[in-house]
Write a structure and sequence with these properties.
The protein is built from 19 helices and no strands. It is mainly alpha-helical. The termini are close together. The protein has helices spanning about 10-20, 25-35, 45-70, 70-80, 85-115, 125-135, 145-165, 170-195, 200-205, 215-230, 235-245, 250-285, 295-310, 315-345, 350-365, 375-405, 410-420, 425-450, 460-480. The protein is globular and about 60 Å long. Bound molecules: 4-fluoro-L-phenylalanine. 4-fluoro-L-phenylalanine binds near residues 25, 229, 232, 237 and 336.
């Protein structure tokens, strides 16, 4: 096996992990979910999820990676060979996610260029779907590839490739830029946002607590899934990143620093988005509720609309907004590739640059599906299965594995003896009891919902293909976990 790679410093590791955690999700997922599920009151389930599941699992992944010095499958395999597949499942789900995460980056690339001339015109809604995506009528109407998006995708993959070319060594350098730049831009947009007329109304909408929402299980379910997604838990990323730590490194304090920095960023993201929405509503003379958007709609329609309304420096604000999305997303994207690549490097003796090239190439080819005219539908369907089910199943397996197969006390003592401060038995209780119960409940809840109403009104055929893809990842995990010879 190749010589073990290491981070250059503790800061490099912390920034890489923060870079993975802070991504598009902080800007276009968190604000919307918080607003929808109780506003200010959502912070209660959110912090409960953070402390009962998020931080405990982050510590678990760090301890597992550090103790074994291996990628997810081999970290599991060190304790029990028959569980290797669960580690492969985690990295395969991450790999599936990066195939479409990179396409969103590709759109951001294109829009970054468009922002110099405000090419989205006076009605960004009429630009994004019909002109930019040229969205077809249904998932099966593929309708050919979109050249500009492919161009953006090539740019994204070249960027990812060079960021991880030498594993931790190169990642540790790149993250100084890709973590700090979006923070600075976010701060600029935050100050711009809260000083706009109408901002207060937007913030009031976002933060007014609706405590009765706390009785709704959907609120709790969304708080937990948001915490997993945002902390990049369950994809083997944090296991791989911790495996590159030197032998004497803190784990527990790092986990707290990383998780809290991420959540504070989400909160500032929320304030920025909602103050800006307040301005939009004010300009249009409508209620804030009628301009609320999430996901692609927020980034590619609502924000360009707001930028058009700015009295000055429109191209500047457009360019820095898309630069922020790009730098936010890139380190999340390459962390997923890195987790997979670290696993492949543990399995095969192939040089890292070549391995990264093969992985990036395959992911690019799969991503072409999302650059077709029906790409947005497939992106949405794949995301639904991977980010909801794939992620939660992988995290559940992780908790069961540590809780019942290797024994959490062992790992807790290991983490305590290394760290700046210790964790008590509460951690073991979370891993053995709270996390499995919550996650099983989340999965059942999800399936029940799914049977009642097909996701987003898609046909059974389209959803079946998404499910098939998830199934394929399971099968691949089993195949990859079988070793021919040693
Ligand atoms: N945490 C990222 C976000 O919130 O956008 C997304 C993500 C990155 C999820 C890396 C999982 C992962 F392994």
């Amino acid at each position: 096996m190749a010589q073990k790679e290491h981070w250059d410093s503790r800061t490099a590791f912390i920034l890489a992990a923060i870079g993975s955690a802070i991504g598009l999700g902080n800007i276009w997922r968190f604000p919307y979910i918080a607003y929808k599920y109780g506003g200010g009151a959502f912070l209660i389930p959110y912090f409960v999820a953070l402390f009962t599941a998020g931080i405990p699992l982050l510590i678990l992944e760090f301890a597992l990676g550090h103790r074994t010095e291996k990628s997810a499958p081999y970290a599991f395999g060190t304790f029990k060979t028959s569980w290797k597949w669960a580690g492969w499942l985690a990295v395969f789900v991450g790999f599936g996610i990066v195939t479409y995460y990179a396409v969103i980056m590709a759109w951001s690339f294109d829009y970054f260029v468009y922002s110099f001339k405000l090419s989205w015109g006076t009605n960004p809604g009429n630009f994004f779907y019909p002109k930019f995506l040229q969205l077809s009528h249904n998932p099966f109407q593929i309708g050919g590839l979109r050249g500009v998006i492919i161009l953006g995708l090539v740019g994204t993959w070249v960027w990812i490739y060079f960021s991880i070319i030498k594993g931790a060594k190169s990642v540790g350098k790149v993250v100084y830029v890709t973590v700090i730049v979006p923070w600075i831009v976010l701060l600029v947009l935050f100050v711009r946002g809260i000083t706009l007329p109408g901002a207060q109304e937007g913030l009031r909408y976002f933060l007014t607590p609706n405590f009765s929402a706390l009785k709704d299980p959907a609120v709790w379910f969304n708080a937990y899934s948001q915490i997993f997604f945002t902390l990049s838990i369950g994809f083997g990323v944090m296991i791989a990143y911790a495996s590159f730590l030197p032998r004497k490194s803190d784990i527990i304090n790092n986990a707290f620093i990383i998780a809290l920095s991420n959540c504070v960023t989400s909160f500032i993201g929320g304030l920025t988005v909602f103050s800006t929405l307040g301005y939009l509503a004010y300009q249009k003379g409508v209620a804030v509720s009628s301009v609320v958007a999430k996901g692609p709609g927020l980034a590619f329609i609502t924000y360009p609309t707001v930028i058009n309304l700015f009295p000055f420096a429109q191209p500047f604000f457009g360019a820095i907004f898309f630069l922020m999305l790009l730098t936010l997303g890139i380190d999340s994207a390459f962390s997923l590739v890195e987790a997979f690549s670290a696993a492949a490097a543990d399995k095969w003796k192939i040089r890292r640059p070549l391995l990264n090239g093969i992985i990036s190439g395959i992911a690019f080819l799969i991503g072409l599906l999302f650059t077709t005219r029906s790409g947005l539908y497939w992106l949405d369907i794949f995301d639904h299965y991977l980010a909801n089910y794939g992620l939660v199943i992988a995290a559940l397996l992780e908790a069961i594995f540590v809780g019942y197969i290797i024994g959490p006390e062992r790992l807790r003592k290991y983490a305590n003896q290394l760290s700046d401060f210790s964790i008590g038995k509460w951690w073991t209780f979370m891993i053995k009891i709270i996390i499995p119960i919550t996650l099983i409940w989340v999965i059942i809840w999800n399936i029940k919902d799914e049977i009642k109403i097909p996701y987003s009104g898609y046909t059974k055929g389209a959803l079946g293909i998404g499910l098939l893809f998830l199934g394929l990842l399971f099968i691949m995990s089993f195949i990859f976990s079988k070793e021919r010879s040693k």
